[in-house]
Design goal:
13 helices, TIM Barrel, single chain, two-stranded antiparallel sheet, alpha/beta
Length: about 400
């Protein structure tokens, strides 16, 4: 007797999406789309800004530190350098960020919280005591008062015997993302943009190894935008800064090589790698086709990455170590120039010394033991990754 055919219909295939709502297929096949053959270190720099990427040198391991007074921060800086950190990143408290003295009534309850209190050049000297500024690069997460803090830093460097052209580092100095996502600002947009343009021009002439602005998508991503929006909004802000400098009489190739960027890295691994590749490609095209930059270094998007703070949980904080490790792999596979890995306890409080060390060790293990650094752009050619790149790029241009 013939077997009866089942009358049950197949249940519809479950729909799965990335964090940015791109539908994910069950399996990806070779696309009919003709893709250009690209190389790392060559325009449009999709595959990386250097030919060998991390075969030649690792990214800068730059842990974000700063709390209490300058002495405590100096101790943490020295501890992290002793453990193998290769760059400094300075966090400031809110009064310093918006120009209040620590004894102001407006600063009450905020001094030394979420960052170090810097009210004078003496504090800056204490924070960097015993750290030769001409031999280490420093990043300062400061915006409204960036010009003041950079002046302090240059003065400390000179007091140590270093000329301003010997100093290397970055000031965040991105006021547009403050209006969009963070709201820590002093002045209205127009005078703020003029101040940033003046600072970019000054650094191009007097502090040529300094990145005077780090155009930031991180805060917008943490506030809820998608990977595509993070790239699009950040590059739109970059266009505004570039135009401000051009309107002030600067020439594109005199300042564009020293523009830098700051992105978030979430745990959506493949989407994040795709995002970084697309950001480099689109930026290179903007600088070449819109602003007619000639210097290849002007076309290179150089960026710092921080793992996602929003993804960490206060419950079972040790699990955050694994989350951060995955995000670290994505940032490295995406070709970051420097990286801060969040500590396991950041959903609870400022990181303990032990937690900060583990976060640094995460980078070091990825660098020395994972094998991910042995070739440039190791995920290129993945059918899934390349389709994500196409989708993100289409969205960015829109």
């Amino acid at each position: 007797m013939a077997a009866k055919k089942s009358t049950k219909s197949k249940s519809p295939e479950k729909k799965i999406f990335t964090d940015s709502s791109f539908p994910v297929k069950r399996i990806y096949q070779k696309s009919n789309k003709k893709r250009p053959v690209e190389d790392a270190g060559k325009y449009p720099f999709t595959r990386g800004i250097h030919p060998g990427m991390f075969r030649e040198r690792f990214w800068t391991m730059r842990q974000y530190s700063g709390f209490g007074d300058a002495k405590l921060t100096n101790e943490r800086f020295k501890f992290m350098l002793e453990k193998g950190q290769t760059g400094l990143s300075m966090a400031f408290d809110l009064p310093t960020q918006i120009g209040y003295d620590s004894d102001s009534t407006q600063a009450e309850g905020e001094v030394g919280k979420v960052g170090v209190s810097i009210t004078s050049i003496k504090d800056m000297m204490t924070a960097f005591d015993g750290i030769p500024l001409g031999k280490v690069s420093s990043s300062m997460t400061i915006n409204s008062t960036a010009s003041t803090l950079l002046a302090y830093y240059i003065a400390v460097g000179e007091a140590q015997g270093f000329k301003s052209h010997e100093l290397r580092g970055t000031t965040q100095n991105d006021i547009l993302k403050e209006y969009i996502a963070r709201n820590t600002y002093i002045y209205p947009p127009q005078p703020s943009m003029r101040l940033i343009g003046d600072m970019i021009g000054y650094c191009a002439e007097k502090v040529p190894s300094w990145y005077p602005v780090s155009i930031s998508g991180y805060h917008m991503r943490e506030a809820g935008c998608t990977a595509t929006q993070e790239v699009a909004f950040t590059l739109a802000n970059a266009i505004a800064y570039i135009q401000t400098c051009l309107d002030a009489g600067l020439k594109i190739d005199d300042f564009a090589p020293r523009l830098s960027f700051f992105f978030c890295c979430t745990i959506e691994f493949f989407e994040e790698v795709a995002k970084f590749r697309v950001a480099r490609k689109v930026y290179a095209k903007i600088l070449k086709e819109m602003f007619h930059a000639k210097n290849p270094r002007s076309l290179q998007l150089k960026f710092h990455t921080q793992t996602s703070g929003e993804s960490l949980t206060a419950q079972q904080p040790d699990n955050n170590i694994i989350r951060v490790a995955i995000q670290t792999m994505a940032a490295v596979a995406g070709g970051t120039q420097s990286l801060h890995t969040n500590s396991r306890d950041e959903a609870l409080a400022l990181p303990t010394q032990e937690s900060a060390k583990i976060a640094l060790r995460t980078q070091q293990i990825v660098a020395h033991e994972s094998g991910i650094t042995k070739t440039a752009d190791p995920l290129a050619g993945s059918y899934y990754l390349e389709e994500l790149c196409d989708q993100i790029e289409d969205g960015v241009w829109k």
